[in-house]
Amino acid sequence: MSNRTFTMVKPDATGKGYTGAILDQMIKGGFAIKAMKWTRLTPEQAGEFYAIHKERPFYGELVEFMSSGPIVAAILEKENAVADFRKLIGATNPAQAEEGTIRKNFASSVGENAVHGSDSDENAIIEGSFFFSGLERF
Ligand code: CMP
Description:
Strand content: 15-25%
CATH topology: Alpha-Beta Plaits
Bound molecules: adenosine-3',5'-cyclic-monophosphate
CATH architecture: 2-Layer Sandwich
Distance between the termini: 18 Å
């Protein structure tokens, strides 16, 4: 079990000015920010990041949305990070997310769901390495 996960604040949330409140909820939830950047993905980069979903019907929509505006990418640290972070953000579909979770508080739909959280320790490393060099991931 690793103590790190990877997150993005997605374009819907940055565009609505929720970035500060979302990061605040992550920090209050016990996660320490180990690396962070404000950036914007090209459609090619978004397609590469989400290549695992290439065959899904929503892939095109996902790539278009994730490249539609700025994002905040971050590596977070806490004991049991991946599972605890998924609890903090809530279900992928905000309509099914528990009260008080980040997606319940800030997301509007299954596509525009405010934040990303890695689904495994292995993917946390792959995703963190997509955005941050070895020097930035100390
Ligand atoms: P995320 O956890 O970042 O990883 C994959 C993303 O695909 C997911 O969040 C959702 O935003 C998106 N997604 C999943 N299911 C659907 C869907 N049915 N329609 C549109 N987007 C989806």
